[in-house]
């Protein structure tokens, strides 16, 4: 189940963030999305240390927590799409369908 969707600009500025849960979880989801941006920066700046290459736009699982899993998609213009889910394994084809 998708609980949050975020679009973040190339300078890590938030462009859009929508949560689909109770208002109490909104702040927690903002924190999870923010922590995921650090993982994206690490993968982009150190491509040898992680599995995806710079040519791949689907970044896969970025930040698993106890309750949530965050998946990422990076465009050619460095705009980031983040999807926070609960107990859902997302594949490359599934992420492309959500982002289009």
From TrEMBL:
Cellular-component GO terms for this entry: cytoplasm
GO biological process, one term: endoplasmic reticulum to Golgi vesicle-mediated transport
CDD domains according to UniProt: TRAPPC2L
Gene3D superfamilies recorded: 3.30.450.70
Any Pfam family matching the protein: Sedlin_N
Family stated for the protein in its record: Belongs to the TRAPP small subunits family. Sedlin subfamily.
Name used for this protein in its record: Trafficking protein particle complex subunit 2-like protein
Species per Swiss-Prot/TrEMBL record: Triticum turgidum subsp. durum
């Amino acid at each position: 189940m998708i609980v949050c969707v975020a679009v973040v600009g190339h300078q890590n500025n938030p462009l859009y963030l929508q949560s689909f849960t109770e208002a109490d979880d909104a702040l927690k989801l903002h924190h999870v999305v923010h922590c995921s941006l650090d993982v994206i920066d690490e993968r982009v700046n150190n491509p040898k240390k992680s599995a995806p290459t710079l040519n791949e736009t689907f970044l896969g699982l970025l930040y698993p927590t106890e309750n949530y899993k965050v998946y990422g998609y990076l465009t050619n213009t460095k705009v980031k799409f983040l999807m926070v889910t609960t107990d859902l394994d997302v594949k490359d084809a599934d992420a492309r369908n959500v982002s289009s």
